Amino acid sequence: MHNGTLKFASLFSGCGGFDLGFIRQGFLSQSAYDCDPDAIENFRANIRGDIFNVDLTNGVPNQQSLYGIDALIAGPPCQGFSTAGKRLIDDERNHLLTLTGHLARRIHPKVLVVENVAGALSGAHARYWNELDETMRLAGYRTTTVRCQAADLGMAQLRKRVLFFAWRTRRDIEFTIPSLPAGDLRSVLAGSTNQMNHHPKRLCPQSREWQIAKRIKPGQKLSNVRGGENAVATWDIPEVFGVITENERTVLEVLRRLRRQERQRDHGDADPVSLPRLEAALGGHFHRLVDGLVAKGYLRRVSEEVDLVGTFNGKFRRLAWDKPSCTVDTRFGSPRYFLHPSQQRGFTVREAARIQGFSDSYVFCGSEKGQYRVIGNAVPPPLGEMAAVLARRLLGAAL
Ligand SMILES: C[S@@+](CC[C@H](N)C(=O)[O-])C[C@H]1O[C@@H](n2cnc3c(N)ncnc32)[C@H](O)[C@@H]1O
User: Which residue is closest in CA terms to ligand 1's atom 19?
Assistant: First the structure.
């Protein structure tokens, strides 16, 4: 049994989402490190404990003060691993995962917990995670990787993440994760109206964005990539994108289908379609229709091929009241990406923070852009709390 208060330090601490989970579980913050002034400003305004503005590639300053600390937690950047991004294998930020292992080896905590996106485990990108694992094993730690889903913790958000644990205590525990029913937007956003950081910015009536938003129902998004009831194509909004005939609609829908068949490139999620393939599917009269659609701005010719001008996949996604949110990211304030379930606007800072599991007592400060960024990048505090429960068990300490 551990008698005193458990202490932790955090690397890549952002605005402290991960840290809050540990604090909620009774851990004491000894120090935190990040290089983003917005993150540091928010951390300082809300969390008791020191945070240092440092570039961790130069190491942890005064590292000996952390030697042997109970828990070291780290949320290195995930952009290079995220399937929502370009997933460049050589993205400089990927090395920060490996760096975490080297810093931890020197600090020698009793338990190390690292959080990242599920994409860090897939394909060639897994080499960074494997290096972290190997570094800790070679340093005498036992390790495990746990996959989790924020919605299974009862949160109103679908957010798949992975947690890495390395420990040098004699403890052995079952890394079981709760499996609760997911929350929904209605309950998580209830009563947010009078809270701090809640400043709804409705789209200007009759503006182009407002006209698009009006056509998107809950659960739908603007997308020319796939058909189906959850996708609204640009040609379904003629008042914004231009009127087309029924024959032109057929050309666009056939093109949409063919773009995804017989893939030729190894990037993107669809390819331009050759004129002979279009002719085989539509007959000889299609050339005139294609010319008309090029003139209307729906299609473009790419040498001997034809493609859609805009694919818009993932834009103007309207969330539904009775479902959990999709993953909160740094763009949650923008209606071009995410729409409130029943109003023509994006989400306020408070709404994004609530979906991420921050309590209303966390007051966000600094530039609004920075506020959305630190919230989207944060480890949801309830996920941090679950990690803290497991870390506490590895330390063999009761609350
Ligand atoms: C995924 S976010 C961390 C989120 C944080 N754990 C939380 O729960 O709020 C990654 C953080 O790493 C920081 N970061 C990126 N490169 C860094 C570097 N070289 N040194 C220090 N911090 C860095 C970013 O500023 C960002 O706040």
Answer: 55
